[in-house]
Give the backbone structure.
Amino acid sequence: MSTLPASRFLDRTTPPHIATLILMAGIGALSLNVFLPSLPSMAEHFGVEYGLMQLSVPAYLATTAVVQITIGPISDRYGRRPIVLTTVLIFILASVGAIYAPNFAVFLICRLLQTAIATAFAISRAVVRDMVPQAQAASMIGYVTMGMSVVPMLGPAIGGRLDEAFGWQASFWLLAAGGLLLLMIAFFDQGETLTKRDGDFAEQLREYPKLLTSQRFWGYCLAAAFSSGAFFAYLGGAPFIGSEVFKMEPAEMGLYFGAPAIGYLIGNGVSGRFSVRIGINRMILLGALLAVSGMALLLFLDLLGIMHPFVFFGFMISIGLGNGIMLPNANAGMLSVRPALAGSAAGLGGAFTIGGGAALSVIAGLILRPGTGARPLIILMLITAVLAVFCTIWVIKRSAIIEDVS
């Protein structure tokens, strides 16, 4: 049972309000996808091939994974609040730097420095686990991610419109403004939730094996990684599908691109409402099976020659729905294996998820070529969704063994 006081908005002597946690997660999500419709114009601006510019997506994801590995134990040792304030400031400066970058190399450096914002998402989950126990954590994480799921739903559409009206730089001005808003609200609202800080940083790092030797932690991480992997493969491949297969303009592609977020919003609502009642493991399995069903049906339609933007992007809602149900529960599960290491677990879990996503994003870019259509991407997403089901079954079996022993 948490001994923390009840949250009061804009009172930094209490834990952060849920609106602040939503903003922390939302700015990170916006940074991931708002500029995707602008990739072709950004490639033209810096005079590089589209494929090279597209690699900024997996490079960002890979750097995010490294950031989350290190930030977990740091926040467990030094607290949640100072880490969020510092990294959000770095994000703001990097966003402005990307706008004025004189060449692609400088832009890429600034883009990778923007991964500092990933700490806000990881720490928002750790803060939830600081405040409430496992079942309630899954529910609260569901509501947090439900609120922030509007961001990736609207982000590409907004980015596409901004690109047409003001150029690609406008998306990065939007990110800088969002970061500034988060910095101000976090400063006045985010009270420290880490109440126990034992040992030094080296001792904190030595606690990692307790997580890495837990089969349940691995199961939750891999289930989340494969489930998210389908979405990250979509991030890596959908711009190609939209521009090369369906011949869409950036603004039109932006409208379609947010389709998974519709399902994610609904799935988060389901998770927030039913996780406590149904249990996190069964919710994870439900989410994984929904994603598999959607991709299997989309592949069937593609084999029949039924392929249209409404069909392709419409079925991506099933990926969002599955992830919206699965991920809050998988995150709550991995954070609860060792509750005292919630920050480390959030960082490690996020690193596995984002690192795997980076790899799948690269693979998606490599397997799509003129003339292939959308089928290679659909197959890749189906495979990753199936693997998420197997990992979930593994977790359920391990949990049953632990219950039998206890």
Remarks:
- The chain has 19 helices and no strands.
- The two ends are 21 Å apart (CA to CA).
